[in-house]
Amino acid sequence: MPELPEVEVTRLGFADRIAGGRILHVRLGKSLRWPLGVAATLLEGMQVLGVRRRGKYLLLDLDGGMLLLHLGMSGSLRFDRFLPPYGPHDHFELTTSQGVLRLHDPRRFGAVVFVSSESDPVAVKLLGGLGVEPLTDAFDAQAFHAQLRQRRAPIKQVLLAGDLVVGVGNIYAAEALFRAGIRPTLRSDRISRPRAMRLHAAIREVLSRAVEVGGSTLRDFANAQGDRGHFQLETRVYGRGGQPCHVCGTTIRQIRQGQRSTFFCPVCQKS
Ligand SMILES: [Zn+2]
Q1: Catalytic residue at 260?
Q2: What is the band of 49 on the pLDDT scale with cuts at 50, 70, 90?
Q3: 175 assigned to active site
Q4: Phi/psi of residue 157, each to 5°?
Q5: Helix ranges, 19-162 (H)
């Protein structure tokens, strides 16, 4: 599933190139998670002003509204002057004067939704509940600590919920908690100030590193085929159950938490 870093790298891969482009044609494939919400022909003639990201949504600002784009479970985007012929798993295509943007999504959990603006009720419904962006100054360590103190769920569940801070998916939560020395099962409201500070820094570090690693694949963006999967992030605990911890040599443990696999080092993450 594409996570925040993959979505950000996707954005970086085409935002500058599509900006200023005029929409010439819109092609819809099979239905996606939600309907487009407007007749495709109404988009023709609109200009793409830029591409922003909010959580895992890409926001294509148009001079007559906005397209919210989500990659779902298996979606990937390509953008280039010309693309190979439209395939059976391509379900949305925006031909602009700057090039063609195409959504490839075999499982069709992705979505492209037109809204009049960010204050459109549909946009508010999709974006309104999202937490703060972790890689911006709005992600404040003190405020983060105060919010963690108000939750009783295990710390990892609170991170995954995404309403405090967006983009900390299963892999990134495991890695950030390891770097901060915090057991994923710790009750959120029991976290001390210094540990919350360490976790705040670790989240930023892990996510920016992932964007950096993903950025190195940017030149291949136009040639990306289908599900590119996760970046080859050098994980320290995620996916390493039964293997020795790189720091202390103790066997990494794997448990289930809320239907998801959780990995931690029982020594480096004592409590
Ligand atoms: Zn360890």
Answers
A1: yes
A2: very high
A3: no
A4: -65, -40
A5: 121-127, 141-148, 155-161
* Rounded Cα distance, 228 and 85, in Å: 19
Cα(235)–Cα(3) distance, rounded to whole angstroms? 15
Which two structure tokens, joined as six digits, stand for 110?
A: 């992705």
Please state, in angstroms and rounded to a whole number, the distance separating the CA atoms of residues 261 and 271.
18
Query: Considering 17, 53, 56, 183, which one is annotated as catalytic?
Result: 56
Q: What is the 3-state secondary structure (H, E, C) of 130-189?
A: CCECCCCCCCCHHHHHHHHCCCCCEHHHHHHHCCCECCCCHHHHHHHHHHHCCCCCCEHH
Closest CA to 6 of 71, 68, 50, 51: 71
pLDDT at 232 over 90: no
Q: Which amino acid is at 100?
A: V
Phi-psi region of 20 (alpha: psi -120 to 50; beta: other; left: phi over 0): left
Distance 267 CA to ligand 1 centre (A): 5
> How many Å from the N-terminal Cα to the C-terminal Cα in the chain?
29
Q: Does the pLDDT of residue 229 top 50, yes or no?
A: no
User: Is 2 a catalytic site residue?
Assistant: yes
Q: Which amino acid is at 190?
A: R
Q: Is 118 a catalytic residue?
A: no
Residues 6+ apart with CB under 8 A from 9: 211, 214, 215, 217, 218, 231
The whole-model pTM stands at 0.88
